[in-house]
Write a structure and sequence with these properties.
Helix 1 runs antiparallel to helix 2. The model has no long low-confidence stretch (mean pLDDT 78). It is built from two helices and no strands. It is 76% helix and 0% strand. The protein is elongated and about 45 Å long. With 50 residues, the chain is an all-alpha fold.
């Protein structure tokens, strides 16, 4: 397996954990402004629907 394929596999394996951590951060945000900011960043990078 070449380097590009290994990086794709590694990236695909990390994505669910990242999304779960992001979702937990959004759900436990200490203020509505922080929650909104996290949602904007997640939407900008298309992170919530993967």
């Amino acid at each position: 397996m070449n380097l590009a394929a290994r990086l794709r596999v590694r990236r695909d394996n990390k994505r669910p954990r990242t999304n779960r951590a992001l979702q937990e951060a959004i759900n436990s945000a200490s203020s509505p402004a922080l929650r909104d900011e996290l949602l904007i960043i997640a939407q900008r990078h298309d992170l919530l629907n993967r």
